[in-house]
Amino acid sequence: MLTRTQSQADLGETVLDLGRQERCGLPEVIYGEGKSAEAIIEIITSQKERGIPTLATRVSPDKAERILLKFPDLRYNPVASLIRAPAENLPRRGSVAVISAGTSDRSVAEEAFETAEWTGAETVFIKDVGVAGPYRLISRLEEIRRADAVVVAAGMEGALPSVVGGYVAVPVIAVPTSVGYGTAFGGITALLGMLNSCASNVTVVNIDAGFKAGYVAGLIAKRAARPAMDK
After folding, report:
1. Where are the alpha helices (DSSP H) in the chain?
2. End-to-end CA distance of the chain, in Å?
3. 25-34 as b/e, with b when 16 or more CB fall inside 10 Å?
4. How far is 70 from 190, CA to CA, in rounded Å?
């Protein structure tokens, strides 16, 4: 077990938490917004020296270009604005389904998907199955029902998570997106609708918080896989 002095690395501009995985099940994640490419590179270097798989969110394309020149083995998703260690290098534990209501919600859903992949979950990404065309969701239900946790990203009125919740027997993590016309209020309407869901298995994260949804879903999947792993 790491001692108090061993559990962190002082990098000058940042202090890397080395004990996060032992305490919380997953290592520390880099929030890229507001950090320079050089600061992110320094953190990733420290992670790699210690065998910590990288996940960096909210990374702009110009920063990503500089980071990938230094670490060509990492993967950048420009839709999700996210850099991570390749999924094939990670052990698979449990399963997560990520659902995007529409193509306008895709960046948030992709952030959730990439994060869930990084946690080690088997993941499936189901796109463009919003409530305006409910038959599209019905045709994918068998895939969704196999998951240990489901993430649903939706804007406008935010109705899709409640619909999904009525079909599955697992936690549904709703992500309101800042998509919609004037009275969508930048995702507040979707957020309030999801908080008022009558589907008892629906819980909600913050507006556009795809990372948070994918992280929590990955922890649920990891936990669900534990009995099989312990046998």
Report:
1. 20-24, 37-49, 61-70, 106-119, 134-138, 141-145, 160-165, 188-195, 210-230
2. 25
3. ebbbbbebee
4. 40
Quote the CA–CA distance of 114 and 118 in Å, as a whole number. Answer: 6
SS3 content of the chain, % helix, strand, coil (to 5): 45, 20, 40
What is each CA distance from 201 to 30, 109, 134, 217, in whole angstroms?
30, 19, 20, 13
How many residues comprise the chain?
231
Find out whether 83 and 110 touch, Cβ atoms under 8 Å: no
Torsion, CA 49, CA 50, CA 55, CA 61, rounded to 10: -10
Say how far apart CA 158 and CA 72 lie, in whole Å: 38
Cβ pair 215, 192 in contact under 8 A: no
Indicate if the pLDDT at residue 89 is higher than 80.
no
- What residue type is assigned to position 73 of the chain? D
- Write the pLDDT tens digit of every residue in 162-204: 999 999 999 999 999 999 899 999 999 999 999 999 999 999 9
pLDDT tens readout for residues 35-67: 999 999 988 998 888 888 889 999 999 999 999
Alpha-carbon span 14 to 42, nearest angstrom = 9
Q: In the chain, pLDDT over 90 holds for what percent of residues?
A: 62
Cα(133)–Cα(222) distance, integer angstroms:
32
Q: Please, is 73 exposed, middle or buried when counting C-beta atoms within 10 Å of its C-beta (0-12, 13-18, 19+)?
A: exposed
